């Protein structure tokens, strides 16, 4: 159903989230108050739905002004007279009169929610990006300093290998604790970043391909975050084969997520320089991942199945490139991380006012 009225709230320094209920009385008919709909103030108030059926309300689409009056553009039906009475700063009563009768509509606010916390989306995004790269660097630095023999020139499945895989760097003795702490603490923030991506595309014109891409993006994004947490907890020490399976699932979920994000970026391209740069970077990093992942699988099979010399070192190098490309793909979304997250506590109870 189309909006019946829209109320633009003046911008203030603080966040004001208001919740109101709308009631209607048709005094010439039943005289019974009916709940007409639940409305929400968040910078703009829109009428959601009507419970009174095809009645007087469906005739109008007007703007409610703070000057307690209606503009000529906002009131398109001259046969009806409208009076607006502000009973208090929190309550407003409209009297809509015509030759056939009068309808009274009253709006009032529930208890105002309390703003608990405001967090910049970019600060959340930067924390998500800094934690994993810092975890790998710290773990690698500690391992190289304290246990170099466990990272370089160590015995593996088919003999001595000279480069560590990312999984081995993650599972060093002391570095493992730091890695788990940093990565696991960033997982809730990663979900907030995923929410930002969802909100970025939620206001777009809905088509089947956009809707499907958004749903797949969210599912694969959540799977990527959860699998990263499992990879951090379940390493080579706990179960080597299970860890390899988790890494394969993580890479697949990440790849699907990247494809969906590239498609949505391309379908919603605005023509700005920042969007063009972001789209090009995403395509470049996705191309690198598409090229390196089959090579990683091939080298892994050659080493573990046939013990081909030097394939493990090549496997490790291509794994480094793939992980860096995945990381860079996430970083390329920095320009879209604008705005804030608002955490609000409020009562869901509303007070009914008799007319």
From TrEMBL:
UniProt KW keywords: Membrane, Transmembrane, Transmembrane helix
One of the GO biological process terms: GPI anchor biosynthetic process
PANTHER family linked to this entry: FGF RECEPTOR ACTIVATING PROTEIN 1, RHOMBOID DOMAIN-CONTAINING PROTEIN
Name of the molecule in the record: G_PROTEIN_RECEP_F1_2 domain-containing protein
Origin: domain of life: Eukaryota
Transmembrane segments: 119-142, 177-195, 215-233, 245-269, 281-303
Cellular component, GO annotation: endoplasmic reticulum membrane; Golgi membrane
Domain CWH43-like N-terminal, first and last residues per copy: 124-333
């Amino acid at each position: 159903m189309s909006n019946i009225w829209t109320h633009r709230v003046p911008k203030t320094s603080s966040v004001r989230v208001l919740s109101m209920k709308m009631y209607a009385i048709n005094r010439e008919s039943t005289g019974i108050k009916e709940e007409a709909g639940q409305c929400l103030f968040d910078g703009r108030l829109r009428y959601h739905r009507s419970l009174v059926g095809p009645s007087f309300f469906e005739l109008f689409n007007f703007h409610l002004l703070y000057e307690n009056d209606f503009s000529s553009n906002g009131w398109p039906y001259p046969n009806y007279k409208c009076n607006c009475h502000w009973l208090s700063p929190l309550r407003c009563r409209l009297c809509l009169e015509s030759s056939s009768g009068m309808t009274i509509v009253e709006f009032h606010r529930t208890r105002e929610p309390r703003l608990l916390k405001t967090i910049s989306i970019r600060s959340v995004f930067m924390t998500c990006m800094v934690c994993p790269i810092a975890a790998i660097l710290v773990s690698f630095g500690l391992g190289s300093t304290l246990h170099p023999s466990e990272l370089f020139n160590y015995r593996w499945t088919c003999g001595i290998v000279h480069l560590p895989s990312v999984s081995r760097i993650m599972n060093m003795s002391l570095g493992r604790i730091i890695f788990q702490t940093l990565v696991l603490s960033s997982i809730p923030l990663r979900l907030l970043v995923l929410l930002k991506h969802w909100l970025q595309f939620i206001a777009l014109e809905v088509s089947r391909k956009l809707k499907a891409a958004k749903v797949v993006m969210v599912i694969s994004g959540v799977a990527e975050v959860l699998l990263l947490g499992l990879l951090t907890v379940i390493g080579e020490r706990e179960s080597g084969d299970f860890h390899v399976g988790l890494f394969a699932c993580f890479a697949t979920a990440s790849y699907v997520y990247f494809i969906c994000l590239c498609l949505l970026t391309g379908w919603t391209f605005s023509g700005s320089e920042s969007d063009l740069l972001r789209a090009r970077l995403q395509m470049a990093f996705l191309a690198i991942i598409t090229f390196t992942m089959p090579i990683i699988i091939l080298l892994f099979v050659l080493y573990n199945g046939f013990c081909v010399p030097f394939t493990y070192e090549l496997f490790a190098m291509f794994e480094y490139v793939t992980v860096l490309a995945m990381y860079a793909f996430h970083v390329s979304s920095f320009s879209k991380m604008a705005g804030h997250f608002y955490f609000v506590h409020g009562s869901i109870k509303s007070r009914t006012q008799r007319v």
